[in-house]
Amino acid sequence: MLLETCSTAAEVLRALPLAIKHGLHREYLFHAVLKGHAQGSPLERTMAFFAEMRLAEVRPVVYNLTYLFKAAADRSNLRRGREIHAQLIANGFSGNVHAATAVVNLYAKCRRMVDARKVFDRMLERDLVAWNAVAAGERPDSITIVAALPACADLGSLKAGKSIHAHSIRAEFSSLVNVATALVGMYSRCGALATARLVFERMRAKNVVSWNSMIDGYAQGGDAEEAMRLFEQMLAEGIKPTEVTIMAAVHACADLQDLEMGKKLHKLVAELGLSSNVSVMNSLIAMYSRCRRVETAVEIFEGLRQRGTATLVSWNAMISGYAQNRCGGAALELFRMMVAQRNDAVQPDSFTLVSVIQAVAELSAPPLGNVYVATALVDTYAKCGGVPLARKVFDLAARSTRSTKCGAAAPRGPTRSPSCASSPPAATRAGARGAAGIRRYEGGLRPCAGQDHYSAMVDLLGRAGRLREAWEFIEAMPAVAGISVFGALLGACKIHRDVGMAEKAAERLFLLEPADGGYHVLLSNIYAAAGMWPEVARVRRDMERKALRKNEVHTFFSGDTNHPLKERIYAKLEELMEEIKAAGYVPDASSVHDVEADVQEQLLITHSEKLAIAFGLVSSAAGATIQIRKNLRVCADCHTATKFISLVTGREIIVRDVQRFHHFKDGRCSCGDYW
DNA sequence: CTACTGTGAG
């Protein structure tokens, strides 16, 4: 009871006389308080107490430091971990098995396996615990099994995971909570959500981590609805969520763009005392950005920045938030601030780069005309071993920056969306420009992690109409171009109505067998826009052959005449067109080009959303909400038409396109006509 | 009195 009231060294010192009277040692008291901090306080608080303790000349003992290591490892705080490692060496504890094991664990958790192995190899005495820390036990116990399962998930090897599952059953470990939980995690990260759920449901005893693994499995696996259902169930069962639970739920909320639920979670974060948890706050930044509440995201980000707790992830979340919400100017401004503040811990990485490229693409700045982007790209490709590509980007950049200098990304005044009013504060802008900042990139970027920045780059080149360059860019990529890269090219071909390039892109794309039928629809629409009807039909047949039609929903294509209810659908459509025209709808032909007016209107009328809405109207109960999922972005004409349809039919219509939800009601859309 | 495992933000 004495200890519970002390949290600073001064308080401990004040309590000392009383403690000594009770027969407690001075050291013991400090160590007990430190342990309390390590288990419950933020790492910084724990470190501060440790420093105070040293000032009070309390000699640390081995297990003080092991607690500190655990605190640092749990939060993957490598920098602090290294500091404690130095303390440990300075105090002559490096020979201790427990301490050394904690160091191995720290490096392993922070994904520094080389460092982990170095410390491990230098250990004179090793026990099973130490072996487990490098996940290489010879006679595996249950903890070794638990440690091996995430490795299967990392490798994406369901086969290896299953064989370990079998082994754990033979060794009679499989019903241990930790083993079962690790199995849930392994199955869900390998995409076997149904199996994960089965293991989860069969668990006799579940703990928070079990719930977290299952909920996050759904959240990361794309089933946000199920993630939220399970989250609600967890709360209903009276289990107190942790920061991990919250982050998974926030992620799911962002996916659903469910702002109301997002706000509830934000409140819950405060109630749970998690407002100082940077990771949680970062997930909220991303959630608000996806729900188009950039202002709220900025508030949170600025709060973190002012407290000095913003991390690289925070900056990336905010820059990405701006980019997603078409605030390209603000995104680039924040990017410049990031570079200018000269904080080594917060310098751009490949995540940042993706958002920056998106921002440049959106601003229609000359491709590669932005010297920041270009420099970052050159650096990245050179590091990936793509020297010829780096050279090419460099040449292009040199050519196009001659006229634009650094100015391509200069603030462009008020940006298009009202939500962009919240641009970064001006205080830290000074000195953000110029070559000095760019030099900071040297050595600053890690080699490309995924395909995202390649597809962003292809999108950038493609939108600017530089389709040939985009193609050359893909050919020169040091990595194998994936679905998203060719998808971006195909999208650009749609914008610029380049059938030839579209065919080239589609050929390569379809070899990769995308599960999403949207790309076939995209190609079909490109043909349709060019009036190439036999080709439209060919793509449709191709899709049917590949069974790409989604079976759980009714799927429609532009110009679809194949549905069993087609007569009723087309009749309904005609009726609707009459009604909405009477209500003031004027077809907007800007998304269909180069065909005669009557053909134009015919194309517009038979756009797949309109077909789907008509089907929804003829096949659902009166007054029911109609839900539509679109695998491309909704076109301007369909958007307008849907507003009118919601007005004349009194129905709510919810369209979810690749970008976001559109909630149509009484002639208005939740997106405020901005998407 | 301790160490090793399972969930984790952009």
From TrEMBL:
Q: Where is the DYW domain?
A: 584-675
Q: Which domain of life is it from?
A: Eukaryota
One of the GO biological process terms? plant organ development
Record's Gene3D superfamilies? Tetratricopeptide repeat domain
- Repeat region (PPR), residues: 96-130, 207-241, 277-311
Keywords, alphabetical: Repeat
Which region ranges are annotated with the description Disordered? 405-433
Molecular function per GO: RNA binding; zinc ion binding
Composition-biased stretches, type Low complexity, lie in 414-433
Identify the PANTHER family for this entry: PENTATRICOPEPTIDE REPEAT-CONTAINING PROTEIN (PTHR47926), REPEAT-CONTAINING PROTEIN, PUTATIVE-RELATED (PTHR47926:SF454)
Protein name from the UniProt record: DYW domain-containing protein
Q: Which organism is it from?
A: Spirodela intermedia (Intermediate duckweed)
Q: In the record, what lineage is assigned to the organism producing the protein?
A: Eukaryota, Viridiplantae, Streptophyta, Embryophyta, Tracheophyta
